[in-house]
Specification:
Layout: H1 3-20, E1 44-49, H2 57-70, H3 72-75, E2 77-82, H4 87-95, E3 101-105, H5 106-114, E4 128-143, E5 159-161, H6 168-179, E6 189-191, H7 198-204, E7 209-214, H8 219-228, E8 231-233, H9 238-246, E9 251-255, E10 267-279, H10 284-295, H11 298-303, H12 313-316, H13 327-335
Parallel strand pairs: 1-2, 1-3, 5-6, 5-7
Antiparallel strand pairs: 3-10, 4-7, 4-8, 4-10, 9-10
Length: about 350
């Protein structure tokens, strides 16, 4: 099954779960409780901005809403997801009040909070607040079967795809290259293949390696491994340690052994994280109840998508959350003894 078809299946399944849980539509009236003595808390509607339906952000938002809606009678929250163009669009919608919470990549969260990059004109988003981090988008080096690439240093002198200028893939690849003290002319060839064409080029031998960020498991990597026996390469070492230590939005990550056929050992790497964020304007009690719905039932959450399978509370409330934690989230974490 391709990455796109797998994502659609997961997204549709989660969407069905949310709808069966009676997630609201904008403007939908709230039915009053029939028994006032047993009435739940006043109902509050939350909309979460996510990403394209075929990506991981949409099912991530769906998984959060699924757990929140399961507790609707107790927590008074009705949760729904909306697809979007991704992090930058989401953060703009959050800032102007069109969304209650959004999922954003940790580097874009950092830039929004600081008011840099595409957010420079609007200035620092000082009201931005972190809730928790979700899955990692890890920089992934995939080596072709005849490339003779066994370690990161072997990339020098090879034909490597790093993605088109302005893309997230290119930005991550350039961060890696800079951390290693390399330049583009250290490679025999630097290509800018469309992501969907990369596995074919690798297996055809016109590329030696792919360098791109991905959540795992990933359909393109499955395609390269099953198609021609490609392998994953560790992205680790003192230079990577320093890069992660100096960059607030980078975090170390691991691609578990066995995720891909023939790649039985854990692969060490780094990357950014998908993060759930809101604003300081969002009610503390509402955020507390949302966080409780996820972390009180974390094993169910982890089972809702393969990319969530290895999540731990420590990494979800740790690095990648550049903006200050929302008070509602912080209260829950303190009660659990995590902060």
């Amino acid at each position: 099954m391709t990455r796109i078809s797998t994502s659609i299946v997961v997204a549709v399944a989660l969407l069905a779960s949310i709808l069966l849980g009676s997630s609201p539509s904008r403007g939908e009236p709230v039915e009053p409780a029939s028994d006032p003595a047993a009435a739940p808390p006043p109902e509050h509607t939350l909309f979460i901005g996510t990403g394209p339906v075929v990506g991981v952000y949409f099912p991530a938002g769906g998984a959060i809403c699924d757990l929140v809606n399961r507790r609707r009678q107790q927590n008074g929250i009705r949760c729904a997801v909306e697809s979007s163009g991704g992090s930058v669009e989401n953060l703009a919608a959050l800032r102007d009040g069109r969304m209650d919470l959004v999922i954003a990549q940790s580097d874009w969260q950092h830039r929004a909070y600081e008011g840099t990059g595409p957010f420079e004109e609007d200035g620092p988003f000082e009201d931005l607040r972190s809730v928790f981090a979700i899955h990692a988008d890890s920089i992934t080096v995939v080596a072709g079967p005849k490339s003779e690439i066994e370690t990161l240093s072997d990339l020098k002198g090879k034909r490597v795809n790093i993605g088109p200028p302005g893309s997230g893939q290119r930005a991550m690849a350039e961060a890696l290259i800079g951390a290693l003290g390399w330049a583009l002319d250290d490679f025999a060839e630097v290509s800018e293949e469309d992501p969907n064409e990369q596995p074919e080029a690798l297996c055809a031998g016109t590329l030696d390696a792919l360098v791109f960020p991905a959540s795992h498991p990933n359909g393109l990597i499955h395609q390269a491994i099953q198609g021609c026996g490609a392998t994953l390469i560790d992205v680790s070492g003192p230079e990577i340690d320093q890069l992660v230590a100096e960059t607030p939005y980078f975090t170390k990550s691991v691609i578990p052994g066995g995720t891909y056929a023939g790649n039985d050992e854990d692969v060490q790497t780094f990357g950014v994280r998908a993060t759930l964020v809101t604003t300081a304007r969002q009610d503390e009690e509402i955020v507390y109840r949302l966080v409780a719905a996820v972390f009180d039932d974390l094993e169910r959450f982890k089972a809702l998508h393969p990319a969530f399978a290895t999540l731990t509370p420590e990494e979800m409330i740790g690095s990648g959350n550049s903006a200050p934690l929302h008070p509602g989230a912080l209260r829950y974490y303190e009660e659990r003894g995590w902060r």
